[in-house]
Amino acid sequence: MKIAVAGTGYVGLSLATLLSIKNEVVALDVIPEKVEMINNRISPIRDEYIEDYFKNKELNLKATLDYKEAFEGAEFIIISTPTNYDDVENHFDTSSVEDIIQKVKSMKIDTTMVVKSTIPVGFIENIKVKYGIDNIMFSPEFLREGKALYDNLYPSRIIVGEKSERAEKFAKILKDSCLKKDVVIKFTNPTEAEAIKLFSNTYLALRVSYFNELDTYAELKGLNARDIIEGVSLDPRVGNGYNNPSFGYGGYCLPKDTKQLLANFDNVPQNLIRAIVRANKTRKKHIADRVMQRNPDVVGIYRLTMKKDSDNYRASAIQGVIEKLKEEDVQIVIYEPTMKADEYADCKVIHDFEKFAEASDVIIANRLEECLKPFSKKVYTRDLFSRDS
After folding, report:
1. Spatial separation of the C-alpha atoms in residues 367 and 146, rounded to whole Å
2. Domain-by-domain residue ranges, the chain?
3. What does pTM read for this prediction?
């Protein structure tokens, strides 16, 4: 069947790649360069599996700038456009999602739209009333940056926010395209599916914050943080994941999803969700304070990205650390190999790693990499296990 995918970020491009193995997929984007790259089988994002599939698999995938070409004749239209959090209005900016909805409605087609973008709790029910439509449902995604296609091939679960034949059909398409056997599929009402997405990501943020605060305690008390974390994580009820200390939770999803959930808790008794958001700010200040205790003249920021093999530094935790360091009388230089600009956030970008390392009195790195070993005496990190999470 023909499936349209609107938006080719991590979510959209991984889904378009996954589904184009067994279906005709037309991906819509507004950036001509991305469309051209996809049609030439060059991934516009850093993802090992997408790059491999583009190179070695027969994909029935085409990208276009024309929404009518994408949507006409499609059985499903997957909406995976960005929904950034608006700190002033305290909710997601869903204008890009609504733009696609309006385009579909203008074509007078009843194709089922499946929203994969992260949205506020209650969005689907409200949108049905606002636009007088029923051909829309929500299916949350649970993907990691740099491993989006892998997480679609081996999904933790498939959740569709509707109990209907079309929901079952969409879930089957996803299941038939993945490589994992016995994938759990759960059908819920739309509002519950929206809540599942936000509560899932907020729990991950909670784990990051918990182990970061454990690490802060150990660091200030002169204790071995690794031993403590390993001992705690041996309890199977705790588990050995999302326990590697960092500079805070960041990336495209966790910061905005925790804030959105906090906003959705308006008039609901709570303490924990607000504490998670506050804990992340506290951790960044702690990191900046520890760096400044070394009395550096020049602080080097090794990578703006949160994870290894990623090219995405939207809302990365290190940016909050940079803002705290800017309040001190210290020069900041950045090494970020994915960046072409010579300046970022009023800080100098040094493209040569050796020159960057030599220029820095302290190098702060959220995640350690091999090239940092010769400069280990300069490096400040809380990466205990040499893995992303």
Report:
1. 15
2. 2-188, 247-380
3. 0.91
Residue 266 confidence (pLDDT) = 82
What is the topology classification, in CATH, of domain 2-188?
Answer: Rossmann fold (3.40.50)
Q: What is the pLDDT of residues 179-223, one digit of tens each?
A: 999 999 999 999 999 999 999 999 999 999 999 999 999 999 999
DSSP at 129: H
- Does residue 323 carry a pLDDT above 90? yes
Tokens 């909406």 label which residue? Answer: 79
Q: Which CATH superfamily is domain 247-380 in?
A: NAD(P)-binding Rossmann-like Domain (3.40.50.720)
Question: Residue 93 contacts by C-beta under 8 Å, 6 or more apart in sequence?
Answer: 83, 84, 85, 86
Please give the pLDDT value at position 234. 98
Question: What are the Cα distances from residue 351, in Å, to 343, 348, 356, 358?
Answer: 10, 10, 7, 13
Distances (CA, A) of 220 to 68, 76, 89, 215, 225: 59, 54, 38, 9, 10
Burial of 135 (0-12, 13-18, 19+ CB in 10 A): middle
Please report, as a single letter, which amino acid is at residue 237: R
Tell me the C-alpha distance between 298 and 136, whole Å. Answer: 53
Nearest CA to 25 out of 9, 49, 47, 8 is that of 8
Residues with catalytic roles: 253
Residue 10 Cα distances to 150, 230, 360, angstroms: 11, 32, 33
Return d(Cα 116, Cα 119) in angstroms, integer: 9
Whether the CB-CB separation of 335 and 302 falls below 8 Å is answered with yes
**Whether the domain at 2-188 and the domain at 247-380 fall into the same CATH topology:** yes
Using N-to-C axis directions, what is the helix angle for 272-292 and 317-326, rounded to 10°? 50
For residue 329, the tally of other CB atoms under 10 A from its CB is 7
Cα–Cα distance between 359 and 355 in angstroms, integer? 6
Q: How confident is the model at residue 145 (pLDDT cuts 50, 70, 90)?
A: confident
What are the φ and ψ backbone dihedral angles of 272, each rounded to 5 degrees?
-70, -45
